[in-house]
Amino acid sequence: MAHIDGYDHQTGVHCGAAAIRNVTRHYGWRYSEAASFGVGGGPAFVRYTDPETPWGRFRTSPIWLERAFFERVGIPHLFREGDDAEMAWANVATRIDEGDPVILFLDPGALPYLPAEPDHVPPHVAVLVGYDDEDDTVTLSDAAVATPQELSQSALREAWTSDRFVKSHNEYLVVTRSARTADGTDSAAAGLRQAATYMLDPLQIQRNARGPGDEGLAATRWFANALGTWAEMPEATRPVRFAKRAIDEHGDGTAYRSLFAESLAELGQRTGLPASLGDRMDRAAEEWRTVADILGDIVEEGGSREATFEEAASIVSSVADREEAIFEDLATELGTAND
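The chain above was modelled as a monomer; its predicted structure follows.
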């Protein structure tokens, strides 16, 4: 039996950014969730082709956020994927024995304490903070829920590998030395630059989103166009339900734009950004919340009103224009990024 002493489980808006906050604070650093999200390069818009659905699915934060954060702030760490189950488990158990919490990348659909229909495209991020070989259990600190969760090791193994449209295989990240080498201002600017570059021109970012269709603002505009056609589908509420969950991920309801507005406010003080950028992103977040509310109305009404679909599509198109202007101004202030 092993457990990380002194680890403080705290919930958050974004599973990965909150995990970063909790893990780094365990080592004595004081990164907020918003700062973690901004340095990691959020937000995003990524459309995935899902063979199980004719309309595809999307996520609103980048799949690489956690790794990008640790790279930018210069914290020595190890990221591994692809080991077989026995080797991967032996490695992370050793880390727990040594007192290091381990960030795991999991399939949310296989975690028994989350809804049967997960609210976002995998991976979902949680932190392994303990295990008991006698009881065959593990303890996860998952910022999406109020308390640490105990589940069987077999359940963890099932969630640790996903063969769905976004594939993963025993991925984990762990701090290897409690040191930091990057300047805080430089890492903040780098994360915000990547956010702007990615949304405006995602091909310039050397990161793998793992098999999407469109990315960035092009994907947002795809979503606006798609909404206008869903009213004609025989089961119109199905794509709407998935879309609402993607916007509402973990109860945020703003596609993480409100969290990014906090990032702009906090990190902008370090990088000399005008406060108006955060205010403008807050207004974009309100538009996303309106879209989520309209999609909820569509589901409740059974998709019966075509005009409601058109209203939602119009707002998404408007928010895409608003975000384009914000990210262009952010890029002008900080320059562009290629990573």
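The chain is about 50% helix and 15% strand.
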